[in-house]
């Protein structure tokens, strides 16, 4: 798939409302990419979206990426100011919230702004770098009475959609985590079918990854394939990030090595990358991976599981940044796995 097509998939998925625990918006956008493919599309009780290509073929491979997004959850409407009082939803970073533009998904979708103390009045002691969530408020421009009619506790809040094309093939937007992984799965599956892949391809887009991975655990338990390829984002090199814990932007796919993942799967992915000229680096964990792979590998007696990530900068902020070459490398590696014809099996 060319860069232009890949970018448009990424743009659409990143803009879709999909806060953790309420992922229907992204599910609808994702399903639309599989129209006219003959895919079998369904959702389970936790909202995981399953798209089965070549559904009548035996065996096969599962490709998976989480489609939920971090944000905030409404706790109350301030009775005096009408500001929304909120708490963290997933791994939202309080340091970047001051003056952020947000979107509130209540009975009516509202644009809002996170309050910010003017620097003239901010504390001078240098210790307070960000307001605690208990101190934050979101101003949607309405008085308390009207806000209570439109927003109730439990409603979700996300960063306002934005998509910036930088120089070269780099883009910046909120929610590249994990819209990038979702885009890689969509592109890989569609390219594999176009290339004549006859395997059963199960694309599973999971929920609740940002709050513990409950969606992936349920989805993997019911999966009918032995092998699963997981994709998420990971750390790109930048100031403040150790080189051995990151990969340069533009260096390709990040193939994960971890004691909880089968070594044979890591070796197969790296061999396929070398065979097909796909750039890659290794990412190493000494224990769990911090991704859906942790809940998939031991589901229902165990799954043959590989993890390949996309490096991004500024993770969990409204200005996440990636290189489309890396996204393309992950999609190409998954396509290579699906279309490999050298007799390797997707079983232990």
What does the model show?
There is one protein chain. With 348 residues, the chain is an alpha+beta fold. The chain folds into two domains: 3-69 and 175-339, 3-Layer(aba) Sandwich (Aminopeptidase); 71-159, Elongation Factor Tu (Ef-tu), domain 3, CATH 2.40.30. It has eight helices and 17 strands. It has helices at 3-15, 24-32, 144-150, 176-194, 214-222, 263-275, 293-296, 324-339; strands at 40-43, 49-53, 61-66, 71-77, 84-89, 101-105, 109-114, 138-139, 156-159, 164-165, 170-173, 201-206, 227-235, 253-257, 280-284, 304-312, 320-323. β10 and β11 form a beta hairpin. The longest helix has 19 residues, at 176-194. The chain is globular and about 70 Å long. The chain starts with a helix and ends in a 9-residue tail after the last helix.
What does the average pLDDT come to?
93
What amount of the residues lies in strands? Answer: 25-35%
Cα-to-Cα separation, first versus last residue: 31 Å
CATH superfamily of the largest domain: Zn peptidases
Largest sheet: 8 strands, mixed
- CATH classification class of the largest domain: Alpha Beta
* Uncertain spans: none
The percentage helix is 25-40%
* Helix and strand composition category: alpha+beta
Strand order of the largest sheet: 1-2-12-3-13-16-14-15
Rg over CA atoms: 21 Å
**Number of DSSP E strands:** 17
Shape: globular
How many separate domains make up the residues? Answer: 2
Tell me what the CATH architecture of the largest domain is: 3-Layer(aba) Sandwich
Tally of alpha and pi helices: 8
CATH-defined topology of the largest domain:
Aminopeptidase
> How would you spell out the order of helices and strands?
HHEEEEEEEEHEEEHEHEEHEHEEH
């Amino acid at each position: 798939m060319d860069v232009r097509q890949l970018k448009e998939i990424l743009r659409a998925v990143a803009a879709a409302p999909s806060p953790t625990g309420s992922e229907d918006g992204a599910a609808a956008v994702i399903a639309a990419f599989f129209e006219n493919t003959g895919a079998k599309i369904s959702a389970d009780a936790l909202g995981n979206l399953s798209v089965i290509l070549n559904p009548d073929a035996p065996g096969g491979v599962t490709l998976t990426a989480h489609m939920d997004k971090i944000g905030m959850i409404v706790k109350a409407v301030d009775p005096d100011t009408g500001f929304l009082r909120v708490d963290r939803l997933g791994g939202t970073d309080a340091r970047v919230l001051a003056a952020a533009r947000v979107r509130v998904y209540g009975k009516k979708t509202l644009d809002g702004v996170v309050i910010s103390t003017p620097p003239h009045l901010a504390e001078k002691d240098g210790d307070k770098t960000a307001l605690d969530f208990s101190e934050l408020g979101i101003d949607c421009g309405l008085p308390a009475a009207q806000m209570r009619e439109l927003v109730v506790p439990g409603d979700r809040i996300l960063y306002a959609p934005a998509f910036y094309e930088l120089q070269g093939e780099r883009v910046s937007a909120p929610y590249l985590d994990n819209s990038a992984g979702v885009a890689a799965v969509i592109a890989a599956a569609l390219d594999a079918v176009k290339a004549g892949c006859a395997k059963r391809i199960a694309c599973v887009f999971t929920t609740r990854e940002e709050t513990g991975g409950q969606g992936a655990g349920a989805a993997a338990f019911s999966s009918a394939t032995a092998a699963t390829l997981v994709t998420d984002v990971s750390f790109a090199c930048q100031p403040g990030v150790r080189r051995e814990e990151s990969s340069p932007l533009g260096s390709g796919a990040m193939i994960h090595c971890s004691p909880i993942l089968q070594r044979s799967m890591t070796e197969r992915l790296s061999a396929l990358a070398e065979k097909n000229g796909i750039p890659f680096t290794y990412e190493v964990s000494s224990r769990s991976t911090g991704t859906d792979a942790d809940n998939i590998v031991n589901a229902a007696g165990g799954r043959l599981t590989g993890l390949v990530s996309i490096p991004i900068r500024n993770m969990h902020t409204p200005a996440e940044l990636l290189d489309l070459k890396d996204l393309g490398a992950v999609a190409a590696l998954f396509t290579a796995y699906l279309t490999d014809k050298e007799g390797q099996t997707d079983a232990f």
